[in-house]
Amino acid sequence: MNAAQALLERIHRDGAIDGEVIKVDRFLNHMVDPQLIELMAADIAARFAGRGITKVLTVETSGIMLAMAVAAQLGTPFIYAKKKRPITMREAYSAQSYSFTKQETTTLYVSREVLPPEDRILFIDDFYSKGSTLKAIEEIIAAAGATLVGTAVIINKSERNDIESILTLKDLTSA
Question: How many domains does the chain divide into?
Answer without folding.
Answer: 1
